[in-house]
Fold this sequence. Notes:
By secondary structure, the chain is of the alpha/beta class.
Amino acid sequence: MPETAPKGLTRLAFGGDYNPEQWPESVWQEDVRLMREAGVTLVSVGIFSWALLEPEPGVYDFGWLDRLLDLLHDNGVRVDLGTPTVVPPAWFYRAHPDALPVTADGVRYAFGSRGAICHSNADYRAAAARITTELAERYASHPALAMWHVHNEYGVPVSACYCDSCAAHFRRWLRTTYGTVEAVNEAWGTAFWGQRYADLEQITPPRTAPTVGNPGQALDYKRFADATMRENFVMERDILHRLSPGVPVTTNFMTALSQCDSVDYWAWGREVDLVTNDHYLITDGRRTHVNLAMAADLTRSVAGGAPWLLLEHSTSGVNWQPRNPAKTPGQMARNSLAHVARGSEGALFFQWRQSRRGAEKFHSAMVPHGGTDTRVWREVVELGASLDALSEIRGTRTRADVAVLWDWHSWWAQNLQWRPSEDHDARERADAFYAALYDHHLTVDFAHPEADLSAYPLVVVPALYLMTEAAGRNVERYVENGGTLVVSYFSGIVDEHDAVHEGAHPGALRNVLGLTVEEFSPLLQGQSVRITGPDGSALTGDVWTEFVVPRDAEPVWTYADGPTAGRPAVTRHRLGEGTAWYVSTRLDAQGLDVLLGCAVEDAGIAGRADLPRDVEVVRRTGESGTYLFAINHTASDVKVALEADGTELLTGERAAGRLALPAGAVRVVRLHG
Length: 673
């Protein structure tokens, strides 16, 4: 089995993307001196350096990289060595302009950015294999090498190409997936609008057409584009495994749901030796620490619960959003340690030294433009010391309380054209339900809809439009065996081909929910409805309502007004040993808090009413012990109750009874007993 932890790394990983090719070699000595001062243990090198490593076709220049890796090794810094296949050189595109991707409108992109690749292009694949082989043969035994980093952020900014090479590749993929054109016609429902194909050779990518195209075809093309990128990763990975055995191979994911929507990370998580992730705060006024926690929980879940690694985030502001505020004092450490609490084996940044040129020169870095006499640098050094103090947690695992079902294929299908309401956003519902669970101080695992759910007392389905029959049976067994399920509207509607399940809605979930939905009744923009409970309590919904018909389910809240007035809005169904809740409108934050409070009570989960909002407590456990991370995102000092005495690792102080948690601070307690 391949190694899954960075080779030779005995502490938590700390460092970032190191791009010394942007600087004269005279700066390198200063860099490694500062790395020692900050406690850097790992840097990523060579990710964008193909043009330097192979300045002409078949002509290689490794001298600068040799000197760099030797220098890093001599200074005790391990290396995550990149295969630079995300940006082929200008000479490559001049020789092979058809390797540049084509949009659905037929426009071919130009060279001059990054990630402009047709992943079906045979010349690109051959060139990527050659440079990867050259790197592996030269550096497989280098003492600085800790792991291999293939490509960079697959799917960003381009995942799908619509050129003729992709069309031919798509047809081959369809033949492998379906076998016959008849099976494709059946899956896509091509009897509609006369779209039937007589031969696979008649099929093209879903290029721009006069009106909406076939949704089954569009969904399969997303699957094809994702699989094609993954084929190229596997090709490079296998070269590295063969020539550099014992060194783990990864590529950096972007699991934050707002940052990459073209990659099925459940599938990718099975292909890498170590799951790594890049995460950047979306500073649009929301509680950024909640999205951070969600991304970390999702990354850990993609890793199957195993430790993973935060390979990129920012020391302060970024430069690619409409507005890019700096992080407040202490926020960098708080963000970093929140990732560690949720399973990361360290914290790395983009990038080590802030660029003077190029598109990301205003993106923050570990060594900012202002140098070492800056707040950012001082906080970097403090964070390095904190991570060193936490080294004993390596290999422990984060313990979750509940599961949220998520599937990228369902998200892709939901986002296709001509749905009942453009105001319904699957990601928004996932964010909203996650935030409500976070505010109940529950740690979340994400799970594939067909995964084993038996370990969780509560499972939440915030938006799962596409759901296979197998997934429906899975959640039904879960409830029958004693689980508590919460399902939001417009879930279980279609199968894996975007075909509506036969019979009444919600197809795959009818039995477990004990109801049917006669009709969807989305609301107009700005409209809302009031729903009332048996005790007179009132909640508010918007965007969506439904004509719900209870079968065995009992109504709990009822629409008081709107197009479905008098009909059930929220139901509860006892099935076997468990309970299934259904909510047929978009509840606001207060409504979700009430609903999940009822479900948490059904599930028998102990609450943490002692914890204020925006104070999170997360546990990691393993052979070395149990570690409680307490993170205070508020401006007030708080006390956190401890179930056992312990030692606080960042200060060395004894912790007993109640842990003092200053405003904006993080504390990590090794619990005794």
